[in-house]
Structure formats: C-alpha cells, structure tokens
Amino acid sequence: MKPEHLPLLNSVSAPAVHPDGSRAVVSVTRPDFNTDSYVGQLWNIPLNHEQLPRRITRGFRDTSPAFSPDGLVLAFLRTGGPSSKAQLVVVEAGGGEPQVITDRLLGVESFAWSPDSHRIVFSSREPDAGRYGSSEAITAEAEEPRLISSYQYRLNGVGYTRDKPQQLFIVDVPELGGEPQTAQASQPLPPPRQLTSLATDAGSGVFSADGSAVYFVPARQGNDDDLATFIYKVPVAGGDAVPVDQGAAAPQSVTEVRQSRDGRWMFYIARDLGGSGRDFVARNAVLYCVAADGGVPVALTDPELMDVAAPGARIELRGPDRALVLNNAQGTVELLELGATGGHALLVHGDKVVSGAAWAGGSLLVVFSDASTHGDVAVLDDGQLRLLTDFSAVLRTQSDIVVPQELTFEASDGYPVHGWLVRPAGKGPHPVLLNIHGGPFAQFTVGLFDEAQVYAAAGYAVLMCNPRGSAGYGRDHGLAIKGRFGTDDLEDVLAFLDGALAKFPTLDAGRLGIMGGSYGGYLTAWAIAHHHRFKGAIVERGFLDPVSFEGSADIGWYFGEEYLGGSVVEVAAQSPFEHVGNVQTPTLVIHSENDLRCPLEQGQCYFTALKRRGVEAQLLVFPGEDHELSRSGRPNHRRQRFEHILRWWARFLPTDANPAAVPPE
Prior knowledge:
By secondary structure, this protein is an alpha+beta fold. The chain is built from eleven helices and 39 strands. The strands form nine sheets. An eight-stranded mixed beta sheet has the order 32-33-35-34-36-37-38-39, sandwiched between helices. Strands 1, 2, 3, 4 and 5 form a five-stranded antiparallel beta sheet that branches. The longest helix has 18 residues.
C-alpha cells in the first residue's frame, strides 16, 4: 500500500437493519483527494445471497442510516459538500427522493427514532447570540472575548464548547407520500422543538420505550472536582431535564444509555471513578443494568477483565431485554450479548475487530475489519459469520496487503508482551520500525492498519505491540504504569523488539527506527532519551511536557496528575522534557496546529530543545488539523504526512523501495 492508495480505504458504518430482517443499510465513506474531503453514500445490503449490494444514494457524504421502527422510512445525515454541515434527511425505505428536514447552521451530529416512527430526536450545537455559528455573517475572528471559570471549556476537534453547547431537539417526520409543494408555494422547514437548554453538551438522545421521554448523558455541568457524569431524562412534551437515580455506590462516568425494548430495564455503560471521582486510569468500561423504576445496578461485564468501550461502540438492543456491546480483547474487538436477567453469549470473536452490530426481524448484522479488509458486512448465521460485502476488493487488487504475524515475547521479568510483525516482501535484511500506539489505555488490533501497510510497502518491517498500560488485557495490565510512565511500558516495547530481532534473521538489528503518536510520542521521546540504538525517531502529537500540558490541553487539568502523580518530583521523573538533554537520535517532530489534546506547544518546545542541544531535528506542522490528523484529517494532509515520514526514513533507513534522495549535481 502506498500513500496514494488512501482513497481505496472504504470505511463502513454500523448497520441499520430493516425491521423485517431482510436487509441492512450501511454508509461507505472514503478519503477523496480531488475534494480534499471524505465522500460516500448509503448501500443496501440484502441477506439473500442471490442479490448483490448496491449504492442507493448519491449525496456528497451520506452517513448514519437508521430505519424507522415501522420500516417505512430511512433517515440519515447528508453533507452537501466539503464545507457543508450535516443535515437530517428522510426517504421512503423502498426508495425515492430524499427530503432534508433540518437546516441547522452548525449541523446535526446524531439522531434517534421515536418508537411510533413519527418523530426524531437529534443533537445539534446551539451557539450563544453573537457567537460564531449563530449567524452566517459572524466570523470567528469577530467574536467577543470569552470569560472562563471552569477547567473544561475546550474539546479537541470542536474548539470552545461552553458558548455553543450541544442541545437536543425534536422534529416531526413529514408525510413522504404526499404531493410536493410547488416552488412558488414552498415554505421554509418548520423549526424543530428544542428539548434541552443546558450550559454544557447534552450528548446524544434516545427515546424511552414508551416514547414519552428522552434519555441522554450530558457532559459535566460546572463541577471542577470530579469526572462524574449521569443519566438525564427530559419529557418529550416539554419540561426540565432531571437526573435519573442510577443507584450507583460510587462516582461513575457514564457514556451511553438505552432502555430495553420491554421498558423494564435501563442498560448503560460507565467507568467507576474511585472515591475521588477522578481515578479514571485503566478503568474498564462496564455494561450495567438497573430496573427502570429504580434499584441497585448490576454489572453485566467484569470490570477487571472486560472493556466494552471499543471506538464508536454503542449499546444495541436484541429482543425485549438483551443488549449487544463490543469488548476490547487482546488486540481484537468481540461482540457480546448480555441479558438483563442473566445470560452471556460471545457471538463474534477471533481475529476480527467488530465496529458495529444491529439486530432486527431475527437477523443480526455485523460490521468488522480484519487483516484483509478495512470494513465489511456479515450476517450471523447459526453462530457463523456469512460475508455479504467485499468493500476492500479494489484495495487488495491495487496493493499488496501484508497479513500481520502474531507474536508474544517475554519481558525481562517474564511478563508476556503481545503484538504483531508486519514484514515486507523479499529476503531482507529489512530495517525495522518500532511503532508505539497512543492512549496509553488503547490497543493495536488485528484490523487492517494503513500505517503499517504503507511502511511495509516501502521496505520496512513494522513491529507493533500492546505493552503494559494498554487496554484489552485486563485492569491490572492497564494500571501497571500509573505513576510509572517509562518503566514497564518501555521495557515491554524493547523486549518485543529484541524478541523479534532474535527470532527473525531477516530483520536488520543494526538499522532501527522508532515512532509513535500521542502517548506513543511520549514513549518514543522517552526511549531516545535513554537508549541510543535507533538511527532515527518520529515524535508525533506527543505528550512531552506534563507541566505546560496541565494548563493547555483539553484534558490537561486531570490527565497528568492521575497518571504521573501530583508532586513536582514525580512529574519531572517521568517527563521527556526533563530528559531531552540526553537525546542524540535525529528526530522528526510532527504536530497539528489545532491539536487541543496535545497542544502544538508540546511539539514546538520539544523541537526547540533538541535544536538547542545540537540534535538533528525537524518540525512538521499541519495547519487546520487537530489530534486526529492521521485518522480523519484532510485527505491531502494525510497523504503528505505519509510522504514526509517516508522521506525521513529514506534519509536514515533507506531501502530499495524507499531510497535516499540523490543530491543534485
């Protein structure tokens, strides 16, 4: 795979299953270099193997499909162009011309159907009067100053949040079979009815089983002392939003809520936060169940061993009283089914990364990735997945996808370190790139990973592992580096590197590079301050100076203290910036201008410190991008990022496929 193959990476949404169980609809989106944006449409996926999947919409970017409970209407979000905001659209489920039913200046972010199929609740940002987004005539530069009194006032990818909180709205679904209005008689869209008026983000809303209320989980509301969030309920007919007594014994951070179809139970996903309400480190996300009329919540998943917080995961319902959730598990993502009154089924496991699932009409549809697909749809038949699509066929045809080799090596204390080798074609010896993931409470997976594939195609053997501190291996594994950044985690990644070098003679132990982003940028910077075996390094969007991070990052007010400790001595002992004087390795620092998770100054100060100490260094800054550049940044920036990375490695680790540039004569 090469950087120019990015447009072949089709991303597939969670499935919307028709209530009769005969078919599903998904959105399929991809990067597009021509528009420098993401484009895609909706696809119909029939379960009948004699029928083929087909594209059913032709919008610029159509996403988030959802059938009405009666099966008559399909709703989705449509973005009209690269600079447009997503709006809510409905179309007859059997086909027809889509109708736009919102015109929100800042767009629609999520939505859900009412049980009677007549209404939709959606979330949208509602800016304060005079703020950017309240009128097309007001620009961000012309806004008045902001007076801030709380820690949490910005969010990566959003910017300032307190002056444009996300609110919930109700909109009636129009009659789709009626005669259209003529152009002369056409009227503006009826305004949706605002349900919430909170000072903070309301999040996504879902209807109660009887349709009388909407449940949601708002962001923290003005409490600077803890991270606790709660379930709220607001009547559809109008009224104040009030917290729901979950009966939890200790503070929790709730992220998702659904009422069971029979109305008897509330399912919700939460992390316990310890006695302080801020102890988030390595807290696995747990699926809880509590009676709808109150009681003591019951944990349906093991908080020590399971983590139902896979990226993009939602609670989906199956039958009257069962829930479907996704579980991070040792480099995979599993699909679990859990019942309110008991029962636990592992439905999909093995070398797959499930990203979405839904059930209706007796059919369970699953979207997943693995070593050879970036995303495809399957139906679960008799406990086995039957593949319905092949959206990565062109990618496999036009590029050579390398299947990762799963490996486990022991650290010096005997601890098993699990990961993968992506080895390029040819006899070698191949230079090696040790790639470190972010988080740290995250995981590399078996799913097709564009980074590893691009580097392997350029002639590099790529090593990726999940050291202590990662998610997916139980709470103890994730908790091992609390107050001990740069200890067991560094030992683990180096042990994995040395184990692979010893096992595979085709890996060149004399030509090593190291790279990582976010926490991976931290551990890369830490490694090159303590070891000088690498020919080059790339530190991307790194957590590099915990002191300035505390006051500048959107999570700075709690992240560093909970992970590193509260004393100056503890923080300095784990700070890459405090050890930058030991670095000798040539280093490329990559950062994004609008990164609020690890702000730009982290990279700028680190680069300057390297230069002042005579270390060969470069700083690559991407305008307009945030912390998600490598995953969802502008397509041309993602391509340019790859090109700069490959040029850097060509200087210090040239290969036949990625040779060093020949200087001009």
